[in-house]
Amino acid sequence: MAKMTGGDALTLALLGEGVETVFGIPGVQLDGLTDGMYRKQDEIDLLVPRHEQSTTYMADGYHRASGKPGVAMVVPGPGVLNAGAGMATAYACSSQVMLLAGTIPSTLVGSGLGALHEIPKQSETIEGLTKWSVRPTRAEEIPELVHEGFRQMRTGRPRPVALELGPDLLHAEIDVEVGEPFAVANPVAPTAEVAELLRMIAASRRPVLHVGGGVRGQRAFDLLAALAERLDAPVVMSENGRGAIDARDPHALPAFALWELRDTADLVVSFGSRFLTPFGQQLNAGAARIALVNVDPADLGTPRRPDLAIACDATAVLEALVAEVPAREGWGDELRRLRAECDERIRERVAPQMAFVDAIRAALPEDGVYVNELTQIGYVSSYGFPVHAPRSYVWPGYQGTLGYAMPTALGAAVGSGGRPVVAITGDGGLGWSLQEFATAKRYGIPLVTVLFEDGRFGNVWRIQRDTYGGRFIGSDLVNPDFAVLAQAFGIDFTEASDADDVRAGVERAIAAGAPAIIRVKVDVFPSPWSLIHERH
């Protein structure tokens, strides 16, 4: 036992879990924690953005680039609410993010007396954005609850967790043993279900492998490629499954290819995907039998109608299959033809966007991280940007969180281990996070931001033009002079007029190793949606 404050105990527990960086903004309810971090500042960094929403975005980006849990810290009330968008995005994308949320003094919680930053039912608000959350009532509970939070993130479905921490607990003097992290067993594939899946694969002539965000990391990346090679089977990547297999692999196909394969496939095996359309129906696999593998049992039931459902970590099942599946003839030339057709369709329908996508891909190293925003180039990137390495593609999943890209990319750059990071954004989305260029400058984070400026919420504007007879409302923007803005922040700025300029600008910015903005003035692009939804 050692005497320390609750804030000291929390800091030591984080260090025991391998945490090196906390993305947070200090405040009076957190003073006991930040004081504890001060005493360990040679071992743990407090990286302070300029908006509370960025704390959780950055923690999410850090996790997705590094594979390690990201930690965010905010004050109660408005701090928690501001951090909510990042928590919702992390929840949608199954990211390991721990939120350290302050509370009002523990004795006042729920009293409604108007304490500073008090909001009704804060715990319930946090609960809706997390897999697991807790508010300790004694400071002595803090280390064990930190370790339990990390165990929760590392087992089952990896979603955000939260600890609510009162200032009285963080300042309390306690005698406590911080202890070691809780052991986490490697998941083991269930023998009987894997045997049934092997029989289904052996009986199929034209199997399709479908992958979602649950197939992550180098081990899964290698196993999936090996299984596809053995079966000579197409691998269809959902938008959240980008990077599960190298896009150059001859078996790799974009999400919309499932609509082409469904007429001839006799088995679809989906790994780590919710296997739903954006409208909540099971993906259409035609007459094919369906096997679903997902660590979350909730993603195996209604409205899905699988012939086989395996509630298990997707990587563990992939490993078991690779150990047993023999090499065989598969789709052969038909798969090569379909790959060529998909690429041709993309380039025919959205050639203007793809020119910029190709330029950034050419400038970014194979393992460089690409953070995709909901902008005109971003919609196309969700199926057109070739991802070559695991943990190198980041997007907001089904939350569709506008404005998340730049702060998320900052966190990714902190966690990338020196790999270059490029974020794309539009002038609409960038308006959410302009202030974080100050964060990039302060900490020397070498993020390259490619800004596509059209003076509008471009997708909204195009829909109002094409669907609503040009009845425009709320879709036009007034922007700052971004060149002057960059100068004010001390950020390198490049004006690009075409895709070649963008490629050259990204290459220069990566070589310089400093934060940079590359601005491209564009008009509203052709719609990408017919390519994706024409057969839904």
Q: Beta-strand percentage?
A: 15-25%
User: Helix/strand/pairing class, anyone?
Assistant: alpha/beta
What is the number of helices? 21
| Major beta-sheet overview | 6 strands, parallel
Sheet with the most strands: spatial strand order:
3-2-4-5-7-6
Quick check: average pLDDT?
94
Tertiary shape: globular
Share of helical residues? 25-40%
Radius of gyration: 24 Å
- For this structure, the quaternary state is single chain
Question: Count of DSSP E strands?
Answer: 20
Distance between the termini: 62 Å
Low-pLDDT ranges: none
Summarize the structure in words:
By secondary structure, this protein is of the alpha/beta class. Helix content is 40%, strand content 16%. It contains 21 helices and 20 strands. Strands 3-2-4-5-7-6 form a six-stranded parallel beta sheet, sandwiched between helices. Helix 9 links the parallel strand 9 (207-211) and strand 10. Helix 9 (217-231) runs parallel beside helix 11 (314-324). The longest helix has 17 residues, at 333-349. The radius of gyration is 24 Å and the shape is globular. It starts with a strand and ends with a helix.
List keywords for this structure.
536 residues; alpha/beta; 6-stranded parallel β-sheet
Topology of this structure?
Blueprint (H helix, E strand, L loop, with lengths): L1 E4 H11 L4 E4 L6 H8 L6 E3 L4 H15 L3 E5 L3 H15 L4 E6 L19 H6 L4 E3 L7 H13 L6 E5 L1 H5 L1 E4 L14 H13 L3 E5 L5 H15 L3 E3 L14 E2 L4 H4 L5 E5 L17 E6 L13 E4 L2 H11 L8 H17 L1 H13 L5 E3 L4 H9 L8 E2 L10 H11 L5 E6 H4 L6 H7 L3 E7 L4 H9 L15 H8 L2 E5 L2 H14 L3 E6 L7 H5 L3
Parallel strand pairs: 2-3, 2-4, 4-5, 5-7, 6-7, 9-10, 9-12, 10-11, 12-13, 13-14, 15-16, 15-17, 17-18, 18-20, 19-20
Antiparallel strand pairs: 1-8
